[in-house]
Specification:
1 helix; 265 residues; mainly beta
Length: 265
């Protein structure tokens, strides 16, 4: 029986579905400078305005505008939730992305462990088809530690804030049509390392390095023998180098028990 099976496998090989071919490519380094203004409210909540851009390092610099406004409410020391509206523009095309989020932060030994779950809707204007308007779900996990370097108040004095985060995103399709293109379960991931520097209660900056990856399905191509030569699954990787600069103001800067989140809100 075993010998018969070994003889049969080569004959069944052409009838079995071929395993999806996965190729990898890497985009050039992208620079992501951002400026943030955070209004601290008396109850510990915040209102955030962020302005930045993406600067690709291939063939000189190309940029696309990026702006967002966000509000987050803290109803318990460990729980908060809110919303954000993000607007991006590149040439004659634009994107509007409203998002709702739920966040939980707790102690994990000497570290703070954060979890952020959000749902967003993408609306595109310009050179996009109506099917580009999509729902997305994002989950981010992070570990951080605040290292005080002195000052009258450890909560607002000079400090370092090393942090590592991982985010995964997937396209949420409530009902898939027969004509919808194939997709992989996870479409995007990002691993980010940073060291925030807090110089006082009103100003901090965060240099960071991230490695993003888009997981795509492209149209396969075959040669005359039926062997796949191109296409299939594509992992498009993008290294990013960023600097977040944040200015905090408002009556809630000195609110008791206020938690100021990392610049990657």
């Amino acid at each position: 029986m075993r010998r018969l099976l070994l003889l049969t496998l080569p004959l069944l090989g052409p009838l079995m579905p071929a395993r999806a071919q996965t190729s990898r490519d890497t985009n050039p380094l992208t620079l992501v400078p951002t400026a943030q203004a955070e209004l601290a409210l008396k109850n510990g909540d915040y209102l955030l305005l962020q302005v930045g851009s993406y600067l690709a390092t291939s063939n000189g610099f190309t940029s696309s505008g990026l702006e967002s406004v966000a509000y987050e409410h803290f109803w318990a020391p460990a729980w908060s939730g809110g919303g954000r509206l993000q607007v991006g523009q590149s040439g004659s095309s634009a994107a509007f992305v409203p998002e709702v989020l739920l966040r939980h932060r707790s102690a994990l030994g000497p570290l703070t462990f954060g979890q952020r779950l959000s749902v967003e809707r993408r609306f595109y204007i310009g050179n996009f088809s109506p099917s580009s308007n999509q729902n997305w779900v994002r989950l981010r996990l992070d570990l951080e530690k605040i290292i005080s370097l002195g000052g009258a108040d450890p909560a607002t004095g000079l400090a370092l804030r090393p942090r590592l985060s991982f985010e995964a995103a997937t396209h949420l399709r409530l009902q898939k049509e027969a004509t919808d293109p194939s997709e992989r379960f996870i479409q995007y991931t990002s691993l980010r390392a940073e060291v925030g520097v807090r110089t006082g209660p009103s100003f901090d900056l965060t240099p960071w390095l991230a490695y993003g990856a888009d997981y795509l399905v492209t149209l396969p191509q075959y040669d005359s023998t039926g062997k796949q030569t191109a296409g299939g699954n594509l992992n498009m990787r993008t290294p990013l180098l960023g600097l977040d600069v944040r200015y905090t103001f408002g009556a809630g800067c000195d609110a008791a028990g206020r938690q100021q989140l990392p610049t990657q809100h």
